[in-house]
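Human: Respectfully, please carefully check these tokens:
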Amino acid sequence: MDELHQQILLLFSIPIYAIIIPLEIVLSNFRHLHFYSWKETVMNVYLNLLNAGIDLALRFIIGLSVLTFFAQYHLHINWDPIAYWIVLLFAEDFLFWVEHLVDHSSRVFWAVHVTHHSSPEYNLSTGFRSSVFMPVYKYMYFIPLVLLNFRPADVIFMYSITQIYGILVHTQAVKKLPRWIEYFFVTPSHHRVHHASNIPYLDKNMGMTFIIWDRMFGTFTEEMDDEVPHYGITKPIAKPFHPVHIVTHEWIEIGKDLKKSKSLKDKLNYLFRTPGWSHDGSTKTSKELQKDWKRRG
């Protein structure tokens, strides 16, 4: 990424670290809202540092090199300068939505992503609770962009910008925004739903910047007044503050399921089908849980 990109990222990100997060902490303590606890906040920072170290290495080894390789086969599209950035914003955000959907739909990817959802708290620091090993594969989703003649450095820059926006929606301090904003953009209300473990909220609102993808493809749900979000995951983690277990707990559970499954087909299903799938029906997927919830309704 060139120097101008770096300066823009600093301009957007420094206020989050220096102003907005401390302000939310002060507000939380002053109003006795208990948005933060020191253990969860330390864990969020720890996971972010792990992710950042891997991302820093792989952004250039995998990210830029892979995207640069595919860029040589790009279509010869002469983008208007303004259209270039607008299309890149929407296209990158859509491909992130696809990646995010896969992370929730395939257990092996959920095992990577689950660390971001594992905190029972929800605040701006949760936005930094990163999926540690996601840098291994996330840049692969952006190959279509370089084939459409978007520069690899610009693709990574746009992803970084939308990620900053994605951090800002991790808050309980902001309630619902004006209707037109709620319709088009991902808002704190939408993302609270995404982080909730309530059955009707599971696997909903996957967007980073725009909520329109969820509205278009049926993964959108409003935050309901009579369904207060309970944050975290449906199955408690045995050792939530253990530095290794917090990253590996779902892989351990997958290993247990692989041992008890007898056929190759079942083993592959435990790896790649939706989290909650089981060969004997002893556990349920989010869609199955939601069907039962509606039936009881």
Notes: The mean pLDDT is 93. Residues 190 and 222 are 7 Å apart (CA to CA).
